[in-house]
Write a structure and sequence with these properties.
Number of strands: 11
CATH superfamily of the largest domain: Periplasmic binding protein-like II
Oligomer: single chain
Length: 377
């Protein structure tokens, strides 16, 4: 069992080694002449390091970006960053599939990257314009969802588990998905449980509990997981991917399904380490990598490359982890990460034996979505 409960020192401000901007004018010669290209290997935008070609629009998960990093990027590069947010990879995909979304940089998770590459939605990265890509740790340099990181570079990684209120579930609570799916156990917390409104993550939670692969394409196993979620719904207060930490800390629920760093940030803000904990269920849990990618039709591809390079700076990468408490895939950042973060096993798990990546399941993605929708209703 891994229970996360700790006191964090308030991160201190450090002098940031900012990436130089200004390799091109605001019109961006590369983008202005040729526009964005992508989808086909070998085709990519040609940008100079530090070049900008207009203001940037970032489409990201909520509560995932340190606002001070945005402020520094705007000041250093002379562009404005507009942020928009989504609650799931599936909503991200739906928003950009038809094109013309206006977004530049997006933050899809591992399995979604491979789907978006297949659908030719991503621009092949101009690695010459992202020199800080060399800071990526070897474990993340050649991922199965994007071999060679041709279309994406890692942003943060973490796990998906359960946040709990120890005053309700007890100090000796077991780290198990049974808190949600075991009828006898979960009924003790009826109306006090929240699950993510996310087809792959919530179906995966049920599959872990049942002893199945979170990437199964077996329709019988998927139906079993859907039936389990439907059965559990009698005890569920909400399916929510945006407010799950708020629901926990407000006392509206005692058990909440969500992403590791969001719990750490929320608990730290209220100094609630004696009352709340983060559990990685022993049956298995999702280990995920969120990435930075540029849409094939991004209006400002050079600004997008420069923004990704800025985030991969060692000190900026550390500042991001010190702010959101997600693990960094940036090897150069480790010397600047707070020791209490770097040495915390709930952020950097010591044993990853029961942690699994979600993979692109091809046509089965539709089955996951349909069965999850039915289970909720």
């Amino acid at each position: 069992m891994q229970v996360h409960r700790r006191m964090l020192a308030v991160p201190v401000a450090i002098a940031m080694a900012l990436t130089a901007c200004g390799g091109g004018d605001d019109e961006g010669t590369a983008a202005g002449e040729g526009g964005a290209t992508g989808g086909v290997a070998g085709e990519f935008e040609v940008c100079e390091p530090g070049q900008t070609d207009g203001d940037l629009v970032l489409y990201n998960w909520s509560d995932y970006m340190d606002p001070d990093i945005i402020t520094r990027f705007q000041a250093e590069c002379g562009v404005t960053v507009t942020e928009d947010f989504y609650p799931s990879n599936e909503e991200l995909l739906a928003k950009v599939q038809s094109g013309g979304s206006g977004y530049d940089v997006i933050v899809p998770s591992d399995y979604m990257v491979s789907i978006m590459i297949e659908e030719q939605l991503l621009m092949q990265l101009d690695r010459d314009a992202i020199p800080n890509a060399d800071n990526v740790a070897d474990d993340f340099a050649d991922p199965p969802y994007d071999p060679g990181n041709q279309y994406s570079l890692p942003y943060q990684w973490g796990t998906t588990g359960l946040g709990v209120d120890l005053q309700v579930v007890g100090e000796d609570v077991e780290a198990t998905w049974g808190l949600v799916f075991d009828p006898e156990l979960a009924s003790q917390f009826s109306g006090q449980i929240a699950l993510l409104d996310d087809p792959r993550e919530t179906m995966a939670a049920a599959l872990y509990y049942l002893g199945h692969s979170p990437n199964t394409t077996d329709e019988a196993e998927l139906q079993e997981a859907s039936d389990l979620i439907a059965q559990a719904s009698a005890n569920i207060a909400a399916f929510d991917s945006n407010l799950y930490t708020d629901l926990l800390l407000s006392g509206e629920v005692a058990i909440s399904h969500g992403f590791s760093g969001n719990y750490f940030t929320a608990i730290d803000e209220v100094d609630g380490w004696d009352r709340y904990a983060y559990l990685i269920p022993e049956e298995g849990a999702t280990k995920w990598v969120d990435t930075m990618a540029i849409l094939a039709d991004a209006p400002h591809p050079c600004s997008a490359h420069t923004f990704i390079d800025f985030l991969l700076d060692a000190e900026n990468g550390a500042a991001l982890t010190n702010w959101n408490f997600y693990a960094s895939p940036n090897a150069a950042a480790e010397e600047f990460i707070l020791p209490e973060v770097l040495e915390d096993p709930a952020i950097y798990p010591e044993n990853e034996e029961n942690l699994y990546f979600l993979e692109d399941t091809g046509e089965a993605e539709i089955i996951y979505n349909d069965l999850f929708t039915r289970a909720k209703s």
